[in-house]
């Protein structure tokens, strides 16, 4: 399914339930953050080995997929509400990041672009 088809299906799902009136930009952004917190909760109090083991557990993988899907769905609703193409926005942001983080200055480094001595 394409991102456009998924967005259309999501909007249809929303509209069939008369939920658009609840989907203000603010409410969608709040909901996105709540879902992202639920995603984060899957790793709370776990070390890296426990998190890696998640990939071997069907129930935990389903929870990971579900929470990631919830985040994506809210992002699509925010983009739909804002009237922009999320894929184009992501591609443009990747280009910005490539300029902020040139390979020769940031390879193997976790420093923020402001610490790379170019901005």
Q: Could you characterize what this model shows?
A:
The protein is mostly helical. The chain contains six helices and no strands. Helix content is about 70%, strand content about 0%. It is globular, with a radius of gyration of 18 Å. The mean pLDDT is about 95.
- Helical run tally: 6
Shape: globular
Tell me the radius of gyration.
18 Å
In percent, how much strand structure appears in the residues?
under 5%
Q: What about the largest sheet?
A: none
Q: How would you state the average pLDDT, rounded? A: 94
Number of domains: 2
In total, the number of strands is 0
Share of residues in helices: 55-70%
**CATH topology-level name of the largest domain:** Helix Hairpins
Instruction: Output the structural class.
Output: mainly alpha
CATH superfamily of the largest domain: MazG-like
